UniProtKB/TrEMBL annotation:
ATP binds at residues 9, 58, 86, 92, 106, 116. The lineage of its organism: Eukaryota, Fungi, Fungi incertae sedis, Zoopagomycota, Kickxellomycotina. This is Nucleoside diphosphate kinase. It comes from Coemansia aciculifera. Belongs to the NDK family. The active site is at 119 (pros-phosphohistidine intermediate). Residues 1-141 form the Nucleoside diphosphate kinase-like domain. It comes from the Eukaryota.
Length: 141
């Protein structure tokens, strides 16, 4: 089955009601949450996770934000879940999301700048790499 990484970013991860809303949308859509961890990323971990953006002007602010508090990482499984979760997340900018995809999670819960509530891997290859940051393979009992 297909898997992807969902992150609830530090602007939202400590809001239990918002996390419950996100999880409710995921399961209502038919996806399964196979694993869940909560972690406060170090600056080094946040920099490594977003290494592809290291030359961008927003990188420092992104790393500071992502290491500012807990992140909830979810391992999602389901049919076409990489694309499906990205659709649920909506456009990168919450302001754009509110204009173009008002039902999306970023429209509902995002703020501005890097504070856009959630992350989703953008391809199956990214998902494999990014899931490795948060989860380790386990042998099923
Ligand atoms: P994510 O990878 O987190 O799902 P995305 O793929 O929609 O988001 P990217 O372009 O990969 O967006 O940017 C990664 C993250 O960097 C964004 O989610 C956001 O938190 C932050 N970011 C992107 N563009 C900007 C910007 N112009 N200003 C501030 N922060 C930004």
């Amino acid at each position: 089955a297909h898997c992807t990484l969902a992150l609830v970013k530090p602007d939202v991860a400590q809001d239990e009601q918002a996390v419950a809303t996100i999880i409710g949308r995921i399961t209502a859509r038919g996806y399964t949450i196979k694993d869940r961890v909560e972690i406060t990323l170090s600056r080094a971990q946040a920099s490594a996770f977003y290494a592809e953006h290291s030359d961008r002007p927003f990188f420092e602010g992104l790393v500071a934000f992502m290491s500012s508090g807990p992140t909830v990482a979810l391992l999602l499984e389901g049919d076409d879940v990489v694309r499906g979760w990205r659709m649920m997340v909506g456009p990168t900018s919450p302001a754009t999301a509110r204009q173009q995809m008002p039902q999306s999670i970023r429209a509902l819960l995002g703020d501005d700048g890097p504070r856009n509530a959630v992350h989703g891997s953008d391809s199956a290859e990214s998902a494999q790499r990014e899931l490795g940051f948060f989860f380790h393979p386990r042998i099923q009992a």
